[in-house]
Design goal:
alpha+beta; 3 domains; three-stranded antiparallel β-sheet; 5 helices
């Protein structure tokens, strides 16, 4: 008889050689609460916890991680934080999607930039931008355009916008949602003035010649 410690459950494992293959026991009494009815009737076999861990090791599976409102959670991207306290709500860390649960807010921001850029024909934010970089920008208190206090009021037309250079994709920082269209309008006006100045200069050169 060999006694070891299971690396997954940290419980004592007793291996008994039965002649054909070793039978594994964890020392837990086999009852209808700790094991299947078939195992209890045989009075031999694994409890539910040992059987679950055995199947995970056999098939290379990992334990399920459930999204609990108000609890700590880590997304596949590596972002870790607290989920909203109530189901169906969103916060700075996560966004709720119906029938899909919570998703990383930064992933949504980067993905949304790519989709809008494809529609309007400008350079998007690099989707491979480290999420830590974006979350660090979230901690800044002022709007990058009007330099007034930036509050994370979530909702349509209220959530801060990730402002970036549409020609290079360079991230500038977060701004009020109302400031971003105004900035785009200012840049359009500036470009129009440059075009007018260029046309005037060309006209002056042609008249001088």
């Amino acid at each position: 008889m060999a006694v070891t410690v299971d690396s997954v459950t940290n419980r004592q494992i007793i291996r008994v050689r039965t002649g054909v293959r070793p039978v594994i026991y964890c020392g837990v009494k086999l009852t209808t609460k700790s094991a299947s009815l078939y195992t209890v009737k045989r009075s031999n076999g694994r409890c539910k916890a040992c059987d679950l861990n055995y199947r995970r090791r056999l098939y290379g599976q990992k334990p399920k991680i459930f999204q609990v409102p108000g609890g700590q959670y880590t997304f596949p991207c590596g972002c870790s934080g607290l989920l909203p306290a109530s189901s169906g709500q969103t916060n700075v860390f996560a966004v709720y999607q119906r029938n899909h649960g919570y998703s990383c807010r930064v992933s949504g921001i980067l993905g949304g930039s790519v989709r809008r850029a494809r529609v309007f024909g400008y350079m998007p934010v690099d989707p491979k931008t480290p999420h830590a970089t974006v979350r660090l920008m979230m901690q800044k208190k002022d709007c990058v355009l009007c330099h007034r206090p930036l509050e994370w009021e979530l909702g349509r037309g209220r959530t801060p916008h990730l402002h970036h250079d549409h020609s290079t994709g360079r991230i500038i920082g977060f701004s009020h949602s109302r400031c971003n269209p105004l900035d785009l309008q200012r840049r359009v006006i500036q470009l129009e003035l440059k075009v007018i100045q260029f046309e005037n200069s060309q006209t002056a050169l042609s008249q001088a010649a």
